[in-house]
Amino acid sequence: MSEVDPLVSHARLAGQTRGVIRRLAGFQRGRHRVPEEHDAAAERFLVQAGADTVAERAAEIHAAVRKAFGYTRRKLVLEQIDASASIRAPDFALRLWLEQDPKDPAAWIMPLELGGFASSAVLENPALHQAFNAWCDRIVISLPAGSDVLARVDALEDAGFTTGLDYDPTGAWLELIVPRDDLVLRMTPNELSLRLITGPDLPALITRGRQLVLSLAGDDTGLLG
After folding, report:
1. How far is C-alpha 206 from the chain's CA centre?
2. Per-residue confidence (pLDDT) for residue 197, from 0 to 100
3. Which of 25, 69, 72, 90 is the most exposed place for a label (fewest CB within 10 A)?
């Protein structure tokens, strides 16, 4: 491992859950209507109807973190504003929020991001794995805005990565499956994400993701800028 852990300095752990709007805690049958479009009115309604659902999820995660790490109350701070919440701890910070599913106006998604790690030791701590294995299945790295995805496709092909490589011809995304590392790499103009082929396993994701990030930082594909 390098002296500066690339996951501590550049990455965050992420996950996402999904549900239908009519089952949100604040949705009242007979009074509320399920949105049929993606618009500002639907987003406002989702914030109102979904606040209790976010509160329930944040409380569940807060309890899991408190149990795994043994933090005292003063060291574990939960705050919520409408349909978003954050949890601050000495070793990391978490945020989650509710938004309309961009693929289905009648559904919601709840992204979760975990970052601000105090050290590499936090990522190796079994308490972190215990608390977040159910919630985090991806490593996400922010890229310089407007990164050229198609240029990265060309670089990958020139480097011999043709098997397992797929991409959108307009440059919206690329995806590379790396079976030997059990990883799927996905890039958009704004971020690079990694997940395991075989499913959620946070300790393995952290180990293999770190190895791949270190290798990408020193190669000619330009994936990390």
Report:
1. 13
2. 95
3. 72
